[in-house]
Design a protein that fits this description.
Length: about 290
Amino acid sequence: MNAISMERTISIGGLFRISRPINLLMVAFAQIMTAYFLVETTTTGIPVLKDYHLYLIILSTVIIAAAGYMINDYYDVKIDYVNRPNEVVIGKGIKRRVAIFLHTILNFTGIGLGYLVSPTVALVNFVAAFLLWLYSNKLKREPFIGNFTVALLTATSIFLIAIYYQKSELLILTYAIFAFFLNLIREIIKDIEDRPGDRKHGCRTLPIVIGFHNTKKVIFIIALSFICSILIVAVKISSPNLYYYFGVMGIFFMFFMYKIYYADRKTHFTQLSTFAKILMLVGTLSMGLL
């Protein structure tokens, strides 16, 4: 009887889906690639992969992100029943009160692990946990500010490595900018994709407030800002390999923007969201070239 009750309270499959394991792996991969290729050694000369603090930073970041996904699904359950009913976990695979409990435990664990590294990392984790809760509770339903918050937190997860190890900050900043702008574009694309549920439940996302076509214009303005920012930082770094890489990536990015220009169906924006993830993965892999 207890086993049956527990199964109804929380399922392994539900816990797996709600934590977005692929996204968490991408965050961890980006941090470890940043440390290995762009930091290389600690301030005392130890190879960074031999420093246990790195793994505590990665683990704490992943835990905070998992808690963020959990609370997001908790607040979005009604919207998700409209936009993606087959993917709803809260209330099915995991009870609402269990989701809140797990969210709290994960946040305290992530902040605690951060404190074992340094008070600065703990503070960053605390701010990230708070902003993820605020995003899910309020900011996500407002135009642009929610998109900006998620993109900023994604960039921070990469730049946190530079903050702690105090190395290659300008080069790591390049990749943080890359992550910020691509995630910002992807978050707006997801808002376009989720218009039906968002509109039904009173959200004021960009596509609902300014319309579908004007939102596309905003994406193109962001893309232009992205290109200008990358060029400015790349010139300051003056690395030939970086020029070659961003030249090739520029071709794929222009194709990505071309697809956005002509996209007009939900399936199109679902594919574009996936393509943005692939661009971020390829961007992360390029760290090995430097």
